[in-house]
Design goal:
Strand content: under 5%
Strand order of the largest sheet: 1-2
Structural class: mainly alpha
Order of helices and strands: HEEHHHHHHHHHHHHH
Helix content: over 70%
Largest sheet: 2 strands, antiparallel
Shape: globular
Length: 299
């Protein structure tokens, strides 16, 4: 029994070791970098924390801690505009994904098992192709001489200019993240009991009323999970805005890349990344608290 308990403890410890190695440790490195100073060197920063001096170096670091880089972020219009633009793109795209993903997940959950498996495979199938290749395929569709304009000319409609526009970014975000919205919704809707809808019909509810009073409230955990899975990575998205939105698009992912590789201001880029991380932690914490309250009520 003791050996089995030790194995269980080791198995439970593995995820924490993984998170510590690939999340906590890189986060501490970026946080330390954000408190450094820009310098003409390689790498282009001067660390304020010198571990070689031991406790004396730590005391000197704490005494000189001023958060100058973080204080500069809200006063720089570039960072503010990029932050608000990222929230706008992510919020609107998440709403569009919910409008498209919910009916699709609902239809999948109500199909026969054989059709359901085929539709589920169709949703997962894009993951078999590289994300970058899929974005380049969208460029081939949306560019002025692309497949979209070829099809429009074939039916007698004029060409449209979508590439390097906000519309192209929304199309790319919705296309890339649709499975992340559909799968959590499908998992919740597929487990719902059909007896509840029959009971609602017996009590005089129309199908639409039964949906809004029974199906949709019970699917809210899936709505929240899918929205978080889409919103959080879209706020920091870099590839889609860079390839589909053009050089004039301002989003935090592109801003961080520019500060790192073009301006070589690593402390500022790290500070932006840390602020973005803490911003995205807030909805996750609120969601977990809400789920904990619902679990307590269920008990």
């Amino acid at each position: 029994m003791k050996l089995r308990g030790d194995r269980t403890s080791l198995a439970a410890l593995a995820p924490f070791l993984w998170l510590g190695l690939f999340f906590l440790f890189p986060f501490l490195l970026v946080a330390k970098l954000s408190l450094s100073e820009t310098a003409l060197a390689m790498p282009p920063y001067a660390p304020r924390l010198d571990w070689s001096q031991g406790l004396a170096g730590l005391r000197a670091f704490l005494a000189g801690l001023d958060f100058e880089t973080y204080a500069r972020l809200p006063t720089d219009r570039l960072y503010v505009v990029a932050y608000l633009s990222s929230l706008k793109f992510a919020g609107v795209a998440t709403f569009i994904l919910l409008l498209l993903g919910y009916p699709l997940a609902y239809a999948m959950a109500r199909c026969t098992p054989s059709v359901r498996k085929a539709l589920l495979m169709a949703v997962i199938l894009p993951f078999w192709t590289s994300f970058l290749i899929r974005v380049y395929a969208l460029i081939g569709i949306l560019k002025p001489e692309g497949l979209l304009n070829v099809a429009l000319r074939a039916v007698g409609l004029g060409p449209v200019s979508l590439l390097n526009t906000d519309t192209a970014i929304y199309i790319g975000l919705v296309y890339a993240y649709l499975p992340f919205m559909v799968l959590p919704l499908y998992a919740v809707l597929e487990r719902q009991q059909h007896d509840l809808l029959e009971a609602a019909a017996d009590l005089g509810c129309t199908p639409i009323e039964a949906f809004w009073r029974v199906t949709f409230p019970l699917s809210l955990p899936g709505v929240a999970a899918g929205s978080l899975l889409c919103f959080i990575p879209m706020v920091g998205e870099f590839v889609i805005p860079d390839l589909l939105g053009g050089s004039s698009t301002l989003m935090l992912g592109k801003t961080i890349w520019t500060e790192f590789f073009a301006n070589r201001d690593w402390p500022a880029a790290s500070a932006v990344a840390i602020v973005l991380l803490f911003t995205l932690v807030i909805p996750i914490v609120l969601y977990q608290r809400q789920q904990a309250k619902l679990t307590e009520l269920g008990r």
